[in-house]
Amino acid sequence: MNFGGLSRLTRFATRTCLLVALLLTGQAPALASFEDILRKAVRANGFTPAEETHVPVNPELAAQGKLLFESTHLSLNGNISCQSCHLDEFGSADGIPNAVAVGGQGKGAVRAMSNGGILPRNTLSFWGRGGVGFSVFFWDGKVDFSGKRKISQFGDAFPSDDPLITAVHLPPVEIREMLAEDHIVLSNKQESPKAAENILKVVTARLKQNEPETVNEIARLQSISLESVSFVHIATSLASFIRDKFRLKETRFHRFVFKGAELTARELHGARLFYGKGKCSNCHSGPYLTDSKFHAVPFPQIGFGKNGFGIDYGRYNVTHNPDDLYKFRTPPLFNVEKTAPYGHSGSVATMREAVVFHFGPLRGIDPTRMRPLDRHEYFKRLAASAEARILTGFLDDEEVDSLVVFLRTLAF
Amino acid sequence: MKRSLLIGNIIVIFLVVSYGTVDYGAPVLATHLWREDYKNLMFKCDQVMREHYIAKRAVELSPTSETVKNLEATEVGLLDCHEYDKLRKRMLIWGLTGPQLSLIGLEALEEKKYELRRFVETHEIRY
Lengths: 412, 127
Description:
The complex is a heterodimer. By secondary structure, chain A is mainly alpha-helical. Chain A is built from 16 helices and six strands.
């Protein structure tokens, strides 16, 4: 018997059968548990159902907070409210690179071109702020209640144990944010909790005078007399509104992870990259898709920067620790598609570019067109981002597109 | 008799054509269809394996929550190798041999050699 011939015949028959099977089914069988592997990885990264992040609020207090959110009387000498820069149409941000605060007019591009005071940072959205465990606020974490020692510009005399209430105290005393730089402010300009306290006292008095019904209600709801109302009660009401209005809601991704709903193949691919090869989840983790820590991502810098001359030292401005130079808090990602532009100075116009610049920052710059100082600063930001050698993975253009498609599942 | 011969001939022709298609045509077609995909997936698998190894070493050297989290991400990243394995097996079924697949893999590895050659061609006149 010719075994070689028999073996060849068997091989031919087997391959024919497999080929026919492949042609009929179109593809080889997929990993049946692939979605489950992903769901497990997502949960392991601390992602929770949206309702688990909710902090109960008094709806009546939140309703008064809404009136304050829209009121220009929170601004001592300007014509600006919280709502001027936190707009629904821009996903609770303002849609422009650097915030244009006190003195600014209009929305979006119109506001950017108006003659308002420029804050050298990109306005952050509010989603999830004040939720369970959300304790680090602002790009540089100038309100940070995540550690044993609570950090805020109020030193040890922080106005509340609630980080959101403490954070709400800052915009009304921030020059060019809600405080216009007039001659009185300029002549009394000093960075001290006492100075801030004085301004907040005046703001509270103005609110009592101009929004008496609101302040009366706030007093009643917090069981205090009208005379006893101070800014912390105002801030508590505002915080209730922010907690309520900007609470996380269920997204398609939540439904995929916790309710077994399906994502498209492209979205799944993006999710796999986010929690896998792209390593986005190294920093964008937890219930809010942020680790609340500080990292240097060398986005281009635009505007004059917090430290002037186009420089922004980020977290260093809070800690004065050279290790924190150029670091910013990882931003949460809910509704990210609505909150362009991106980065601490809003220098990145699209989600796609924002993804690319995380692992390929050199694609965002042309060193030959930079001023020498800008080039030097960029080199330093690149050096500060050295941890990215571990924390990011390379993605090709198709993968970047998938990741962007996935990020859209985080909208509500 | 003639009818039997005709049927016999048809069967033989069918077998020869089938054999030729499966043994020679299919591998050529598969190569044509999936060569670039194969190179791409091979690159991706290689990349995630390297990242995984680096992440493992990072945990060994410094077992922190950050390095462990990074390692877990690279483990999910290894799913890219599943795609590569699937395509490799599909191409084997379509009749490509291991050495033929290795050759395509080598082409992927050496893709940058053309840049090197271009560089040498441009500059060798100076030597």
